[in-house]
Design goal:
The chain has 25 helices and 27 strands. It has about 750 residues and is an alpha+beta fold. It has a six-stranded mixed β-sheet, with helices on both faces. The longest helix is centred in the middle third of the chain and has 19 residues, at about 300-315.
Length: about 750
């Protein structure tokens, strides 16, 4: 391991006017592939740095451990730039106690248990290890339980040496370039030496057939992986375009077998995997797909792939964190031409053959043919000295920014809700988007199930793109984006007729959709347990409870149509009762866990304060439910949701945990609610500062702004302030009988 002299921290900046918050993205050269450290060490360090104690220091801190690197994201108020850079001086700030290390070790083991609930995750790790034998890219990012238990304090201290100085810092926000450089200089983060990993191009790769039967038991699985060139020798935009083209070809080739394509790139290599768990899938299907992928890319396919990649980039720019990721990975490159993409494909095609990949089937018991090939050489698709790439010696890169806007951010922010019913609408604008976003809130009380993406009317999807589907209790929230005001207005004119016609689907069993991940399954199973008692509708057409709209900066919208809809439907109300869930009920699931369902006293902004405090983003003096749950070693993640049935409102929290810890979680929720009541003034002040509707120009993403504005319209009383008698609200919650349920694995 060498500490290379003369390699310095790089800085990439982008200024966005009219925001009062920004993101600092910091990349350190320590990842899961580092073979100088035990497997799982990089991820362990990420946990320690993002622990409860350090969140108090850094504020709103999130992170991600990758194969080559660990990346941290700090959402920072405009006026705290220098303070944040001082906090990034890890030599002064990082200090891990024995108790902290053991607590995080327990949390990581819980995270591994959740990860292993999905057989697909285990298979992909097995493929990864088989593709890269004797190389760090074959390592698991999390590690397994036994590996995590063996990580010592001295291992963690050795890992901290990679945190001496960051490799790259990306800043996206309201700051000028000169202001950033000055703040970095004050903190000593400019022109510093950094310790580099000794990873290199893998030259020993796995080949042939392996067995998955022990991992998947009776689950049908067919899959394979192939090694491709990495980030250091490719144009990342070319891979994005090809991914969309390849996905389209796979769907057309096997419309019913649902083969999934995964395309990951690391610094020195990349991985393409294909997999299916559909009955009838076989190994020969992989050969057919590879043949399809090698087919020359047509001009029409290229144009379609570029359009989808452009849309993906627009989405990334609508979130400060993903916007910084885009700058970190792609700012040196431009979209490839058709001819350039064809050259990329010609070189990649040489690696897309069955016999030079690793593949297998859980239902095929024939002999393994797995071997190891040495002295393998991956091609470089982009010359690292290409003049189109910026020189590595540059200290700072500054993309061109837009001139300051003459408009004030969110000058057209409006919210209107009714004291007589649940109807509402909200409108706001943002400098983070070039598109027009609409969120439709649809109550599913009479539909007997939550809605899925396929249920959205085709007439809406003809004009816009479905961006997100979320669930809040028995409400389904569809977020649709439009490229023009005219398209949005045309859809709104139809939607504000108060009825949204739902596509009549042939399928009835929807449980598989709600079991994609633990969070969705946990929510779905709780809702199934308190299913509304209503008459099922054959030809369902749902009334619209509300609309929330986000416009590009300097855009406007007339609210006349919205007001008309509001007046027409103001007196219409949806009522219904629900199944009275018995305290102590046991719900079957794919996991063990616990949940607490708490009736709320009445419609109030206080319910939103409690929901936000459960995660407690940013700096605060009170304990969040997530931190309290982690500190007790119960679970790495919590799931929560508000649920409204007629005029009754609930909030529930749930976790995955061993059966022996269910009672501990019930007590933890009560303990947390009591602690909130003891810190009620601090909580209200914190909420006033972080809640987006009170300060819209502090939003970090379009999704956050849209979500918070929508909740404000639906759950809060008209003209309600943050001083919402939170203490009295919490007192009534604690006096009410909470419903405690447990989940038992099938």
């Amino acid at each position: 391991m060498q500490n290379k002299i003369g390699i310095h921290t790089k800085c990439i900046t982008e200024q966005i006017h009219n925001l009062k918050i920004g993101v600092i993205c910091v990349r350190y050269g320590i990842g899961a592939a580092n073979s100088d450290l035990p497997i799982g060490t990089a991820h362990f360090l990420e946990h320690l740095i993002c622990s409860t104690e350090n969140r108090q220091l850094y504020g709103n801190l999130t992170a991600m451990t990758k194969r080559d690197e660990t990346i941290y994201y700090l959402l920072t108020p405009q006026y705290k730039l220098t303070d944040t850079f001082n906090a990034l001086n890890t030599k002064k700030t990082l200090d891990f106690s024995e108790d902290m290390i053991e607590r995080e070790r327990t949390i990581i083991i819980r995270e591994i248990e959740q990860f292993q609930l999905q057989p697909r995750n285990l298979i992909l790790e097995q493929l990864q290890a088989a593709l890269f034998p004797n190389h760090g890219y074959g390592h698991s990012i999390l590690g397994n339980k036994s590996q995590v238990k063996k990580i010592s304090n001295s291992d963690l201290k050795r890992g901290l040496s990679y945190y001496s100085y960051p490799e790259t810092i990306v800043l996206v926000g309201p700051w000028e370039h000169g202001q950033i450089i000055q703040a970095m200089g004050t903190a000593g983060l400019v022109v510093q030496h950094r310790k580099e990993s000794h990873l290199s191009f893998p030259v020993i790769l796995g080949r042939g057939k392996i067995h998955f039967s022990e991992v998947l038991r009776d689950t049908p699985f067919v899959g394979g992986g192939w090694v491709l060139p990495g980030e250091k020798s490719t144009n990342p935009f070319a891979f994005r375009v090809m991914r969309y083209i390849w996905e389209g070809r796979i769907r057309r080739c096997f419309p019913s077998k649902h083969f999934k394509l995964r395309l990951n790139q690391y610094h020195y290599a990349g991985v393409l995997t294909l997999e299916s768990i559909e009955k009838g899938s076989k190994l020969s299907d992989l050969e057919t797909i590879l043949l399809e992928l090698r087919r020359p890319i047509s001009k029409n396919e290229y144009c379609e792939g570029v359009d989808k990649t452009t849309l993906e980039i627009m989405r990334q720019k609508e979130n400060l964190i993903s916007r910084s990721e885009l700058l970190l990975s792609c700012f040196r490159y431009e979209m490839p031409s058709w001819e350039e993409l064809q050259l990329h494909q010609q070189i990649i095609n040489k690696h897309l053959y069955m016999d030079i990949g690793v593949y297998g089937s859980s239902i095929d018991s024939t002999c393994s043919t797995y071997t190891i090939e040495k002295n393998y050489l991956l091609p470089q698709l982009v010359d690292s000295t290409n003049e189109n790439r910026k020189n590595n010696g540059d200290q700072c890169y500054k993309p061109l920014d837009k001139p300051p806007s003459s408009e004030i951010l969110l000058s057209n922010f409006k919210i209107k809700n009714s004291s007589q019913s649940n109807r509402y609408w909200t409108v706001a604008s943002s400098p983070l988007t070039e598109r027009y976003h609409v969120l439709f809130r649809l109550p599913c009380l009479y539909f007997s199930r939550l809605l899925q993406p396929k249920d959205l009317p085709f007439s809406i999807l003809q004009k816009g793109v479905l961006e997100n589907v979320r669930y809040e209790g028995w409400d389904t929230l569809f977020q649709v984006a439009f490229t023009s005001n005219e398209e949005m207005q045309e859809v709104l004119h139809t939607a504000t007729s108060t009825m949204v016609p739902i596509q009549r689907q042939s399928y009835i069993n929807t449980s598989e959709y709600y079991m994609q991940n633990i969070e969705l399954e946990l929510k779905w199973r709780i809702l199934e347990a308190i299913r509304p008692i209503v008459e099922k509708s054959v030809n369902a057409s749902l009334k619209l409870n509300g609309l929330s709209i986000i416009l590009p900066e300097n855009s406007s919208i007339t609210t006349v149509e919205l007001d008309r809809w509001f007046e027409k439907t103001d007196k219409e109300e949806i009522n219904g009762s629900y199944v009275k869930l018995v305290n102590g009920a046991v719900i079957g699931a794919r996991f063990n866990g616990a949940a607490v369902i708490c009736p709320l006293p009445y419609k109030s902004l206080a319910s939103l304060i409690i929901q936000e405090a459960a995660f407690g983003v940013g700096k605060r003096s009170f304990l969040s439910l997530e931190n309290l749950t982690r500190s007790k070693g119960l679970s790495y993640r919590i799931v929560q949701s508000l649920c409204r049935i007629g005029n009754e409102i609930f909030i529930f929290w749930g976790i995955q945990c061993p059966p022996k810890l269910t009672n501990t979680f019930y007590e933890t929720v009560k303990e947390w609610l009591i602690s909130l009541r003891m810190s009620v003034k601090d909580v209200e002040l914190w909420f006033r500062d972080i809640w987006t509707p009170f300060s819209p120009n502090k939003h970090k993403s379009i999704l956050q702004l849209l979500r918070d504005m929508d909740r404000m319209g639906y759950y809060a009383l008209p003209d309600e302030s943050p001083d919402a008698l939170l203490d009295n609200y919490l007192r009534q919650m604690l006096e009410n009988k909470m419903i405690e349920v447990s989940f038992r694995k099938f």
